[in-house]
Amino acid sequence: MFRTYIKLLLIFILFTFPNLSFSSNHQFFFNLSLSSDYRARGLSQNNKDPALQGGIDYINFPSGLFAGILISQVDDSVTGYNEANTETDWYLGWAQQWKKTTVKLFATYYYYFDTLNKDNNTSEYFLELKQEFENFSVEARASHSEDWYGFGDANYYVAQLNLSLPYQMDLSASYGKSEFAFPFLVDYEDYEIKLSKTISAVDLSLAYIDTDMSDSQCFKPFYCDETLVLTITKNW
């Protein structure tokens, strides 16, 4: 029941307080989205089914401190998240921008309500760099977890290129690399190309996502085959 209350509270906040802010230095932002599949690092988290997601972000602009939560539907099968159909990502970090260079340091805690396997609850630590140019930007991100879903050390690296296109459209291309210390888990690569556009204050995106793993290396619900993911997002 608790996960249901969180979903209802999030929806209530999104539609009741769309411009909530205490001052120009303390601001809140909200988002609600629907995706044809929830893919994380190339793997489906919801058995290839649509997923409803929402988030709240807080930013303190003078200090660069930020915090937030992302809530998403996930697969609750035995081979999935073991009775948990809700993922919550709690994050806290610091960001600063110097001219066109941005640095971020943050930590994320992935918590799954009602899961029968407490190893699913995992912490991860990130370093992110972004460099902006006239019509494009490049990003690099590295993360580390000391106990990735109960399987020990894991690292993840991402490089991403963002382009501004005509007709107020954006194109991004990213490459990710997952590395695991546990021998049962296979190191793999993931790829994403995403086209996005904002229409009437609603963000639309279509992403092509794939990995270098074969079908035999993936199991339900964490499918890793190539796919197209359509996402509709409303931001406040």
Polypeptide structure, described:
- This protein is mostly beta strands and 236 residues long.
- The protein has a single domain, classed as Porin.
- The chain is 6% helix and 58% strand.
- The radius of gyration is 18 Å and the shape is globular.
- The protein starts with a helix and ends with a strand.
- 17% of the residues are buried.
Task: State the name of the first-level CATH class.
Answer: Mainly Beta
Helix content: under 10%
Which stretches are low in confidence, meaning pLDDT under 50 for 5 or more residues running? none
Q: What is the CA-based Rg, rounded?
A: 18 Å
N-to-C CA distance: 27 Å
Write out key terms for the chains shown.
two-stranded antiparallel ribbon, Porin, single chain, 1 helix, 58% strand, 236 residues, mainly beta
Summarize the structure.
The protein is mainly β and 236 residues long. The protein has one helix spanning 2-16, and strands spanning 21-23, 26-35, 39-40, 43-44, 51-60, 65-73, 86-98, 101-112, 122-132, 136-145, 154-165, 169-180, 188-199, 202-211, 227-235. The chain has a 12-stranded antiparallel barrel. The chain has a two-stranded antiparallel sheet with strand order 3-4.
